[in-house]
Write a structure and sequence with these properties.
The complex is a heterotetramer, with two copies of chain A and two copies of chain B. Chain A folds into two domains: 2-184, Rossmann fold (3-Layer(aba) Sandwich); 197-323, Rossmann fold, CATH 3.40.50. Chain A is 36% helix and 20% strand. Chain A contains twelve helices and 14 strands. By secondary structure, chain B is an alpha/beta fold. The chains are: A alpha/beta, B alpha/beta. The complex binds thiamine diphosphate (2 copies) and magnesium ion (2 copies).
């Protein structure tokens, strides 16, 4: 075991997988020599050579389209997109090819590839560096979408993603890249894709969150303990295909549901969870399943971003609303 | 080096056979063995017959949207004939003759245009990637395949196809450049058939040639008479040599022409002239290659007649088989989205099956 | 008035707007000389010249990014994407610029532009020609997303879109491009963006649909009349920002809700509507708000596509399920 | 025609001043009036001072992420000085000196890096488009602006900036080609500052020059010493003339160097050598232009000292004003998503305001 941040966990996982499997390659803009703008791939080129860890030209379609070809021809590419806001030039490759190659070839060519991207707000960054765009990918059949919230899960989920025979979009919550450390095994283990985690059991309401907002919700729960509100917190971990069972069971128990996310509200990820809860647990609902989300508005530059931060207080306030409905 | 000699910036075009089938420069004539030459010609002929019939089937309402290859057989077969079994072919979507030469089954090729994914399920040892509809995006796949060849030290090259229209796309730019910077074993064949649906080559770019786009990537580009299978063959051979030596990618612009419509949904009479069509019909690759084959004593009118009849029968029989496949089973269409189907999709399918049962189906 | 198909209505609207406003320009792949692969822009080049109606190189980023620049410099571009499946190469332009230019410049540069695309399945087409991807755009603040279902609405909504000071994504249901004709005024009128339409009043259930599925739902309603089930049908028409009031009022009356769409289920447009109904009319719900949608699977080539068609019978069956819950 | 003479394929580089400030070829020296020369130099100097201070403010935690321009002042000012008021400037994101010359307020430029959209709200008559973070995508906007100029018969050109890294992007390819095929009045300035964050120019492309990418589009490209404001000026003038004559776009590759970090988040010591830095520090555009100005009798050490002090005060005062702006009001951040805010967003904001009130805020 070793104490690691989420960022350390990404780096150590890549290192471990590259040492265990010579088919694993890692690349992206600035992801080779200097190890990426966040240093997530630091040291890999020095250790595994320029063939397996490399800098690409500034061209996201080439990064993702190139990964498709590599996967077809025997490699296991782990492509880094520098920030999730810059994945859009590769959206064509992801939607029309990455998601479809297995189906298109009836299983002849599957794509065991991972697309890693830092995502999410709260770091006072330039334009396009703060968005949460998971639902755009979660809507596309053929993709898996994963978001860890702890160093332990990061290593376990990224390991699972690299070993997955299907393409995985791996969003890394950059706001908490270095926020805290956790004991993480230094040998290989997996956290299964598709399984949510009950972070804390409770009986009054089910709250689902992921990424950086899991910790914020934990803080909210602390605030509510004094008020004797017992919250069951679920970390979704995989956005698609997601764990309906764990959520449904919980809602059947609590009768109330809140989903908290940074992404825009309209046509956002929360809508999916609420619909699912309706489908699976309608008769157990004692209050409208509710979403606390980002606004339907472009995330402002840093001097306005504080309005967009979903604070523990705000989560607590929303939980109370649902509980007191 | 042909590539040095035929500099597109100097308006040089590589040709071996003129449009009547006479050798332009004997020093350029490749030494291809008779068997290969015959295979090349026969494949072009089969491609032509299959193409003609596919159009007929479509007009009879038996085939779906189909993208004809008529006129482009040499640009396809000349290239693939220069490859080995281990080399990869990354098609755009209008490469039926090339795929046939690489070993694909006509039945499968027809199945694609018949509307069945089976048509893209090429057995792995053929090393043919599926048809790629989003224009030019396959160039990036080809670069990735070539990257993997190089990293794994596999002695193989990748040939990627793209159209004249495709060269305007950002994906073309990124893919070729990626291959160039990594000195990847890639050959990019631009089938410049003069049109992208109704859009003429002149609207795609004001560059005088498409081959000269290579200059942007610091790699060689060459313009070749794409209706001359021998010229396409020698250009590919040389590009392949460079690729395997580690010298990186080459762009080959095949000057050719789509004699048919863009697809069966297209009406080319709207946008192109009879004169243009006539000009190119005279330059039909089959005319000149047949002449060459007859001159070589490898072919004759009798053989031609026999072969066409054989092809007719073969194509008809094949298409009957295709029609025999009919609709695709429910379970089959859902099976390949993931290795293991997720529970919710299973539920969705079961709901649907319940509905079908309730309908008595 | 003149009898028009939806396709005629698109063409006539463009013609009318180009004749009324010389700032309106129309372009795209094959959209000039031959008038587009569906002939939606037929005759415009001949009438308004090559400057105002033109063929572009095969390059979607240039089409949409070019439109941004044109709009900045005084034009009102109406860009055609040949099929919605080919919009992804331009997704970067749409998400990072089209949706944001007004906000980025604090209102200095708004983008009065329209992106037209044929969309949807059921025409036995090649790969990427059958998808319904409206929710990907509806999730992005700054965009408006419109889908007409009749010739009359097509002309009125497209006119409104061209006159709108904000960018509008205009999806055209190609399956019914030529399916039927309707009397349409030959002079200018608008159908307001953001307003749904009650196609048929009813009391047992509210059904929301759009595009080609409005007609299919009408057929389903006919089937149900014998069974004495009274359906209120709402044509959403604008997907974002959408008309919550009309839907809410209807659900408050009927107590039951079904949304029908071709798009993939998970994280799809139906989820949004269901969540909204929960938020606005929870206490009126007598059955779980339900969605009948495309499968979470890549749409097959034509020989498998029949499994994906949402037929009137299937809609009727789903309506009955909700009504009998 | 400079463009003919300085063919990048022949490794010709246009320069007027050598790196010490001596005139290389008197025939090339442009006749710029004194006032303009002084404005050019003063703007470069102000850019330098503002840049130095922005970095300091950032290290003091007072400024957010900032992208330094140090070393690239000539490539920016030399270009904009060759334009008229009516011409458009389409920046990437590292063009502060160019924007200053075009008339932008330093306060506004700082506001951007301070994290306030106000920094992108250039008054319309400045004809400066907002900073574009998605690399190369602005080239397409510039082409669109130029299309509108041409269609509306406006006598104006558009200058678009892009980095060396940006030339690898598909958006660059599509935008330049679109402009070329329509013969648009566009000038594309590639600020080749040798690096894209930590990625050297050699990883972006193996083409020997970036200017030669013009060959792909059938338009002229020229490599210019980008640290020489006079060379940049004359190249731009000629490109502008071509553009206004209807001859279409020109690519100008400015050979320059980013003397600072990529942004304040970047540590260039990881990836670049002291020697390289030293080599380029000697080629600092300010050194040579100052020498030229002194030789011309337009500048002196005394003036320099005075100007720097003035700049220091001005920049400090300006940044104080910037800091005075503080956080942005709630209503302000929502106002500009649509012309008319939609009801649901209004509701969302009201809900949030209720929460704030409940918090006693
Ligand atoms: C990205 C994308 N945009 C548009 C289309 C629609 N489309 C299909 S084929 C075609 C023209 C292709 O022209 P070219 O590359 O010259 O190939 P050709 O058809 O001549 O073989 C177009 C525009 C597409 N398939 N992909
Ligand atoms: C499409 C896109 N991908 C990645 C980034 C992240 N990024 C910001 S600046 C930069 C390097 C740009 O290099 P260059 O074009 O040479 O401009 P320079 O920074 O040298 O001025 C990168 C990769 C981005 N902004 N946009
Ligand atoms: Mg073509
Ligand atoms: Mg650079």
């Amino acid at each position: 075991m070793a104490l690691m941040t989420i960022l350390d966990a990404v780096n150590k996982t890549l290192d471990e997988q590259m040492s265990l499997d010579e088919k694993v390659v890692s690349f992206g803009e600035d992801a080779g020599f200097e190890g990426g703008v966040f240093r997530a791939t630091k040291g890999l080129q020095q250790k595994y050579g320029k063939g397996r860890s490399f800098d690409t030209p500034l061209a996201e379609s080439a990064i993702i389209g190139g990964a498709v070809g590599m996967a077809v021809n025997g490699l296991k590419p782990v492509a880094e997109i520098q920030f999730s806001g810059f994945v859009f030039p590769a959206f064509n490759q992801i939607v029309t090819h990455v998601a479809r190659y297995r189906n298109r070839t009836k299983g002849t060519y599957n794509l065991p590839m991972v697309i890693r991207m830092p995502y999410g707000g709260g770091i006072r960054a330039l334009e396009h560096h703060s968005e949460s765009i998971e639902s755009l990918f979660a809507h596309i059949p053929g993709l898996k979408v994963v978001i860890p919230s702890t160093p332990y899960d990061t290593k376990g989920l990224l390991t699972a993603a690299i070993k997955d025979p299907d393409p995985v979009i791996f969003f890394e919550p950059k706001r908490i890249y270095r926020a805290f450390k956790q004991e993480v095994p230094e040998t290989e283990y997996q956290v299964p894709i598709g399984k949510a985690k009950v972070v804390k059991e409770g009986k009054d309401i089910t709250v689902v969150a992921w990424g950086a907002l899991v910790r914020e919700t934990e803080k909210a729960i602390k605030l509510l303990e004094k008020e004797n509100i017992s919250v069951e917190l679920i970390d979704l971990r995989t956005i698609q295909p997601y764990d309906k069972e764990t959520i449904t069971e919980s809602v059947k128990k609590t009768g109330r549901f809140l989903v908290v996310h940074e992404a825009y509200k309209s046509y956002g990820p929360g809508a999916e969870l609420i619909s699912m809860v309706n489908e699976k647990a309608f008769l157990h609902l004692e209050a409208p399943p509710t979403r606390l989300t980002g606004f339907d508005a472009t995330i402002p530059l840093p001097k306005g971003e504080h309005h967009f931060i979903i604070s523990p207080n705000r989560i607590a306030s929303e939980i109370k609303k649902v509980v007191n409905f | 080096m042909l590539i040095k000699k035929f500099d597109p910036l100097k308006k040089k075009i590589l040709e071996v056979l003129d449009y009547k089938g006479n050798i332009v420069d004997e020093k350029l004539e490749p030494k291809i063995n008779d068997e290969t030459l015959i295979k090349m010609y026969k494949t072009m002929l089969l491609g032509r017959v299959a193409d003609t019939k596919a159009l007929q089937y479509q007009r009879q309402g038996r085939m779906l949207t189909y993208a004809p290859i008529k006129g482009q057989e040499a640009a396809q077969v000349g290239v693939i004939a220069a490859l080995e079994k281990d080399d990869w072919m990354v098609p755009a979507f209008r490469e039926m003759a090339g795929m046939l030469y690489k070993g694909a089954d006509l039945k499968q090729l027809f199945l694609y245009w018949y509307g069945n994914e089976e048509g893209n399920k090429f057995s792995k040892d053929l090393k043919i990637l599926p048809i790629s509809v989003p224009i030019a995006s396959q160039i990036n796949h080809a670069a990735g395949v070539a990257y993997a060849s190089k990293l794994q030290e596999l002695n193989e090259v990748t040939v990627a196809y793209v159209g004249d229209g495709g060269t305007s796309h950002g994906e073309f730019h990124e893919g070729v450049n990626f291959a160039a910077t990594n000195a990847l074993p890639l050959i990019v064949i631009i089938q410049n058939n003069q049109w992208a649906i109704s859009t003429p080559r002149s609207v795609q770019t004001i560059a005088e040639t498409l081959a000269q786009k290579a200059v942007a990537y610091g790699i060689p580009g060459i313009q070749v008479d794409g209706n001359d299978p021998l010229a396409m063959y020698i250009a590919t051979k040389e590009a392949k040599e460079r690729a395997l030596k580690g010298d990186g990618p080459t762009i080959i612009e095949a000057l050719t022409y789509r004699l048919g419509p863009h697809t069966t949904s297209d009406d080319p009479t709207i946008y192109r002239s009879d004169e243009e069509l006539k000009y190119w019909e005279e330059r039909d690759p089959l005319i000149r290659f047949k002449k060459y084959m007859i001159d070589k004593g490898l072919w004759s009118e009798e053989l031609e007649e026999k072969q066409i009849e054989e092809n007719n029968n073969y194509v008809n029989k094949t298409f009957k088989e295709v029609e025999g496949t009919g609709l695709i089973d429910l379970d089959e269409v859902f099976k390949y989205n993931y290795e293991i189907m997720h529970k919710d999709l299973e539920d969705q399918i079961n709901d649907y099956k319940e509905f079908l049962e309730s309908e008595g189906k």
